[in-house]
Amino acid sequence: MRPLKFGAGQPHTRLEDPPLVTGQGKFVADCVPEDALRAAVLRSPHAHAKFRIASLDAAKAIPGVRLIITASDVSHFANLACRAAAFIKPADEKAVFIPPYEVLCTKEVRHVGDAIAFVVADTVLAARNALEAIEVEWEPLPAISGTAEASKPGAPQVWPGRENNKAYIADIGDAEAAKQAFDAAAKAVKIEIVNQRLVYGADDRYTMTVSSQGANMIHNSVCGIMKLDPKRLRVLTHDVGGGFGTKAPAYREYALAALAAEKLKATVAWIADRSEHFIGDNQGRDHVTVAEMAIDNNGKFLAMRLDCIANMGAYYSEVAPYIPYLGASMMTGVYDIPVVYGRVRAVWTHTAPVDAYRGAGRPEAAYLIERLVDAVALNTGIAPEEIRRRNFIPKDAMPYKTATARIYDSGDFNQHLTRALEVSNYKNFASRFAESKKNGKVRGIGMASYIEACGQTAPETSTVRIEKDGSATVLVGTQTNGQGHATTFAQLVHDQLGLPLEKVNVITGDTDLVPTGGGTVGSRSMPTGGSAVQKATIKLADNLKTLAAQHLDAKPEEVEIAEGLARVRGTNRALSFAELAAKPGVSADQLCGIEKNFIPPAPTYPNGTHICEIEIDPETGHIEFKNYVVVDDFGVTLNPLLLEGQVHGGIGQGIGQAIMEDTVYDASGQLISASLMDYALPRATDTPDYSFETKNVPCTTNPLGVKGAGEAGAIGSCPAVMNAVVDALHRGYGIKHIDMPATPLKVWQTIQSALRS
Fold it and tell me: What is the three-state SS of 292-312?
């Protein structure tokens, strides 16, 4: 096979970076015309209240105010949609109850930040002044914010008729078989964990520019809300400063801005500030789970049970109800556990809705099982690496069907654990622990062997075509928000056509040019989108061979495609792509390859091992990272440089959840951590240097053999970090558990409590 200097597998730097690092990026705020009108939203200051807008007169009288929209003005709109409820089979009802999620509330608000009016003015200042001038009569009502407390008798109700704030109850696995296994087991180990909440036109057509993870997803949702003919809406997404799930759904403000633009016949811009993001946008995680493992005398896992309470917030977002159920389906992790039973209890609270947040259910599952496995090791005295090895699904068992009906197609879990132990110098940890102790510190080391399910959320169509100048254009619905898609997709095209990467133009984020697409969620971009690009490019190459053969007096099978040329093998007869495109009578179809609605037949299952070594200062509770090692299995690596960057970013996000980030509501439903003064995010100084490598086993369910990497770093890091923290606290003080986030204050308080007991 000819060498491909810039093809798949090569560490090419990102083509996207020069404009971004030179200030030439194009984000939503960069797209606002100078004469655009500006919008602001009147939001509830109460977590739960009835209300009545008494008067708009004073607000309308403020100079520059053009329009005020209230609930009566959007009565023709549909409610915000929940797309995932159909995937849940409740244990005690025929279907999941879906409450109305109004674009603007009519009579009652159910969380701080709920929207009741939309103001458009000449300036942001005028719009905000109008918000303060709107006269609202409030009748505050009792509220509930705690996840576990929401289901207790007597808790304030979010929705009438939903006893104990029940959103739904769903089961997975076999309850009776699990009971029998636990009854017969030599020992059972139980753990309760908290997975805390995180934040993070001129004609009759609308043109909407948004910061999104998928323009087509936004297009479909907004058309549904506005009951709009899809042909009347164009959605554009340019550069995006990260998504992580928050930018996948359509928010109520999108439809409101479109309606305002129609009424005023002008461009309307609404750009959320940081405070609005905290109280108005979807949040993530927020589970309280009890899990237990039944084991025999040799530490072999016999059965597992879990009871998960999942906070939905006040409304269902687009996919929220499916997230905890998806997590439960991955509860067994990388282990051979023959019997399981899980119960998911979703509850309503007077808090902002939750939705997918980097990994969406799989990080929660990995954290649960890996903390439980360490608890088993601690309880039995079996070393953490040994308890894992005794229970790993062996590589010769692949494909393996879990007790939750997941089918892992490939993997060698012991391989990446063994390598991670070697790289981390795990065997010599005792000497490093002794050195830390001599210096008045306590050191810990923790590991996590994770697996996730991804890559299969929606079909993808890709078009690859040759332009008149011989360059190639790729159209695909998987949309970058920092991952480097333009680079990797260009490498896939280079593999088949030999074109330099700078002659491949990747177009995404325009629903006029790319009418279908599943966006970038669930690590689907390469398994689904990349596979579609590859298959479309192969079809294009075949078309070019056929076209060239007609002009080179050859058979198609005698023509090869290389270096932007179509040439007859073994001869100097060749035509460039530009020459082919210029031939008389050449049709657009001959210069194009299309792969329609490709979707892998099954999910992919990335997996790997993280090992984290930390040191705690008992005087302050501060955690310092001393070493961090990752060995992953991503099937096939398309660009090792970009892949490593994805993993680094994910680990940083996981570290943030493990030791810093926490969305805190008080008992009345007020958000206490509503700014970056109160919500701590990791900085470069909070993250360690990482050692990263892969031990790949190719995936069998997509033509590229890739497994997806966008979420993996965030999935493996939380349990590895927290297992290291618990290991240090146990070695130093006999402490067996601490919940995330392990902030310095919480660590210090836990140590002080142990010293007093």
Answer: EEEECCCCCEEEEEEEEEEEC
| CA atoms of 141 and 109, how far apart (whole Å) | 10
pLDDT at 204 over 80: no
Q: Quick one: pLDDT at residue 199? A: 87
- What mean pLDDT is predicted for residues 283-307? 97
Domain spans of the chain?
Answer: 407-455+605-757
Residue carrying structure tokens 């020459």:
579
Q: Quick one: pLDDT band at residue 456, thresholds 50, 70, 90?
A: confident
**Beta bridge partners of residue 442, listed in sequence order:** 616
Chain centre distance of CA 40? 28
Angle at 507 between CA 506 and CA 513, to 5 degrees: 150
Average pLDDT over residues 320-339: 97
Predicted local distance difference test score (pLDDT) of residue 1: 40
- Find how far residue 441's CA is from the centre of its chain: 36
CB-based contacts of 171: which residues, under 8 Å, 6+ apart?
Answer: 91, 341, 342, 343, 344
Determine if residue 45 is left, alpha or beta; phi over 0 gives left, psi from -120 to 50 gives alpha, anything else beta.
Answer: alpha
565-568 sheet: strands from edge to edge:
559-562, 565-568, 574-576
512-563 confidence digits (pLDDT tens): 999 999 999 999 999 999 999 999 999 999 999 999 999 999 999 999 999 8
One-letter amino acid of 21 = V
The residues, any chain, with a CB within 8 Å of residue 277's CB and separated by 6 or more, are 199
Closest-CA residue to 10 (of 632, 642, 472, 499): 642
In SS3 terms, 684-743 reads as: HHHCCCCEEEECCCCCCCCCCCCCCCCCHHHHHHHHHHHHHHHHHHHHHHCCCCCCCCCC
Fold of 407-455+605-757: Aldehyde Oxidoreductase; domain 4 (3.30.365)
- 434 Cβ neighbours under 8 A, 6+ residues apart: none
Q: Give the pLDDT score at 6.
A: 77
Q: Are 168 and 346 a contacting pair, CB within 8 Å?
A: yes
Q: Which residue, chain included where needed, has tokens 């909440």?
A: 197
CA dihedral 59, 139, 157, 674 (to 10 degrees): 50
Angle separating helix axes 384-391 and 413-423, nearest 10 degrees = 160
**Mean of the per-residue pLDDT values for the chain?**
95
> Which letter does DSSP use for residue 151 in this model?
G
Residue 359 CA to residue 637 CA, distance in Å, equals: 20
Taking only the tens place, the pLDDT of each residue in 420-436 is 999 999 999 999 999 99
Name the pairing type of β-strands 301-311 and 407-408. unpaired
pLDDT digits over 477-525, tens only? 999 988 999 999 999 999 999 999 999 999 999 999 999 999 999 999 9
Asked if residues 250 and 218 have their Cβ atoms less than 8 Å apart, the reply is yes
Task: Encode pLDDT of 63-108 as tens digits.
Answer: 999 999 999 999 999 999 999 888 899 999 998 999 999 999 999 9
